[in-house]
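Feature request disguised as a bug report, sorry. It would help if multi-protein outputs had a clear separator. Right now it looks like this:
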Amino acid sequence: MVTHAAMPGRKRAGAHARPRSLSPYAVGVPLALGIIYGFYAAFIRRDGGPSTGGQVVLGLVSGAALAALCFVLGRIQRDLRHGLRAVAYGALTACAIGFLVSLTDTSVLRSAGLGLVVGAGVFLATFYLFYSREP
């Protein structure tokens, strides 16, 4: 009796596929990152003075934007290849860090440069992590 060996492939989502359920981490981690990021953005903009409504709005909007982007990236990351997933994490980190540096009233070149350096580091680390841990 000879049986055929079939290599298991990636399951593709069909028309009748059930949506993925949300784990507490899928919502909690982006929410925590958004809250911390929003508080830090408002803190940087405050610069030691009294808190104003504009700083609160800046913190809320920037935190909500980062939380939403992290949530979306977490939902679609399984559908991306190793390199593209690492590029997405690096780009998100580069934009987030560049925005925080731009709040300190430094030059655009410094905020873009620091964002690119940190984003490149995150790209390299996540590419290594994804490439070495997945088949």
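(second protein starts here, but nothing in the output says so)
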Amino acid sequence: MRGSEDADAQDGMWLDEDAGRLVRPYTVSGGRTRPSTHFDLLTLVMATGSRPKIYLGPDHDQILDLCRADPVSVAELAAHIGQPAVITKVLISDLAEQKALITRAPHAIEAAIPTDRETLEAVLRGLRKRL
């Protein structure tokens, strides 16, 4: 775990207590703004248990830690690591290429489930009562 300790020490120099993170998002992704694979915001991400062959950076490590136990959506990962979704997608694609993550597209809502007018009106009435 020596690499993790080195990464923690390096992270400290890029954080300022008052200003927050001192590294711009495009720097985190190496200037890339497009992931190599398409991910939806609801795509589920899970760590495989395999570590990347090379050290990718602290944000990559944080993503791996967050999705180690349970699948986590791309949107949740972006919120947890404090990066825009597009940058998070680039980082996820880096980890997927290294076989450190697997992804699964979200299940589409069944089109066969009809939405009846009564249900929609009941929801609307409930919302109006709250406002």
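Even a blank line would do. Unrelated, but nice: The CA atoms of residues 32 and 44 lie 22 Å apart.
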